[in-house]
Design a protein that fits this description.
The protein has 416 residues and is α/β, with parallel strands linked by helices. The chain has a 7-stranded mixed sheet with strand order 6-5-4-9-10-14-13, sandwiched between helices. A 3-stranded antiparallel sheet has the order 1-3-2. It is built from 19 helices and 14 strands. The chain is globular, with a radius of gyration of 23 Å. The longest helix is centred in the first third of the chain and has 24 residues, at 47-70.
Length: 416
């Protein structure tokens, strides 16, 4: 076994200690136990095993998941209350070749996505059960079919660019991999199925993760509700680039007595999907391109269907997982376009995104940074990156709220 910086006895002790507290706290013991187990796996793995895991197992796992989703394997596996099913039975249920089905299922079981209960016999796992829901299931077509070509083209792109940091959103690894000159979002807009899958993926992205709307994360009542305008035409929060409204619906569900309207802004096609899927009466859908001037400002008036709002500006302008899709120059343009909407001393800017620490960055954060590099020549940002970007657009950071490593933070800012 090659030398390693990991202290194996200490990691084993950490796992034993934290495992005793599983389920007894808010999830901290589970997170620590998982991190220690992952580090222990790396410590015990030989270089040859590492190469095989990365090059064979993980690539094959992804392909098997994608094939299983297309064949509806995970829905079929969960039928009859999840009773055990043979590979031949699942082949018959899906129309796949029995030998092929057996090969796919064996690797899915070896990688932990399904359980093997006997020779060629399987039952579902929490992971496979989750894939029945489009919100979770569409993650894999998004990653495999949209992100995948960009990932595979990234090494070639970096070499051709002499290893300069990518910063052109229409000339990057995504464009090289897909053979297009269009930006990611323009490319998806021409492919409605892909756009819908991406929106579903974004809707499920935060499931099971800490939410700033929960208690003990961000003080919603103290920092937002207190001193918020309560007139009938007041706007409480604007979700900019908010997709189908998943975040606003969560906010309304967890804080049903918020004053004022909740405004959902996105491009035309996404807003049409949001309205078709159904929105709470409190949520007002609005078509808006965030590269253009924010329409909800001091004397804002907007008529849409049965809504008429006359606002003095919103209490909060909220952006979730949008700015990381763009390099600094474009993110600066988005923030500059938003700035006129805020009322100094009243409005807040809330940015719900990853803040990468200078040391000990979590793999969830660093892997997402690699995704952004591959698909949009953009990045996840450190605290210093965020401060510089916001200050360049006329904002100042009030506080950065972070619940746990690897989770998205909430950056609270205001006009400088």
């Amino acid at each position: 076994m090659s030398s390693t910086p990991y202290d194996i006895p200490a990691l084993v002790k950490k796992i034993n200690t934290t495992s005793n507290d599983l389920g007894k706290d808010n999830g901290e013991a589970r997170r620590q136990c998982l991190d220690a187990a992952r580090s222990l796996s790396f410590a015990l793995e030989t270089p040859a095993e590492s190469i095989s895991r990365i090059g064979w197992a993980e690539q094959g796992h992804h392909a098997a998941l994608r094939a299983g989703i297309h064949l509806n394997v995970f829905e079929k596996l969960d039928e009859r209350n999840g009773d055990a099913k043979s590979s031949s039975e699942l082949a018959e249920m899906t129309g796949a070749d029995p030998y092929l089905m057996g090969r796919l299922l064996k690797h899915l079981a070896a990688m932990g996505s399904i359980y093997e209960t006997g020779p060629n016999e399987y039952v579902p796992t929490p992971h496979s059960k989750a894939l029945k829901d489009p919100i979770n299931r569409d993650a894999y077509p998004t990653i495999f079919d949209i992100f995948g070509p960009g990932f595979f083209a990234l090494p070639e792109f970096l070499s051709k660019s002499q290893y300069k940091n990518p910063d052109n959103p229409i000339d990057g690894a995504f464009q090289l991999g897909h053979g297009t000159k269009n930006h990611l979002f323009e490319w998806m807009s021409q492919r409605p199925e892909r756009l819908s899958q991406f929106q579903n993926y974004m809707g499920g992205y935060r499931r099971g993760r800490p939410s700033w709307m929960d208690p003990n994360f961000y003080p919603v009542e103290e920092n937002l509700v207190k001193d918020a305008k309560t007139e009938h035409d007041a706007v409480f929060l604007v979700d900019i680039g908010g997709g189908k409204g998943h975040d606003l619906q969560e906010l309304h569900r967890k804080h049903p007595k918020l004053p004022g309207k909740l405004v959902l802004q996105d491009i035309k096609g996404v807003i049409e999907e949001a309205k078709a899927s159904g929105l709470e009466e409190k949520i007002v859908p609005m078509e808006h391109d965030f590269f253009t001037k924010q329409p909800i400002i001091g004397t804002f008036t907007h008529t849409m269907e049965n809504y008429l709002l006359t606002s003095l500006g919103a209490r909060a302008y909220y952006i979730h997982s949008c700015l990381h899709n763009w390099p600094d120059s474009k993110a600066h343009d988005i923030l500059t376009s938003l700035r006129p909407g805020l009322t100094k001393g009243y409005s807040k800017l809330l940015i719900n995104e990853t803040v990468i620490p200078e040391e000990g960055a979590h793999w969830l954060s660093t892997s997402l940074d690699m995704v952004m590099m591959a698909i949009s020549s953009a990045c996840e940002r450190t605290e210093q990156n965020w401060r510089v970007l916001l200050e360049s657009a006329g904002f100042k950071v009030v506080k950065i709220w972070t619940y746990e490593p690897g989770s998205e933070s909430l950056i609270e800012a205001e006009l400088a």
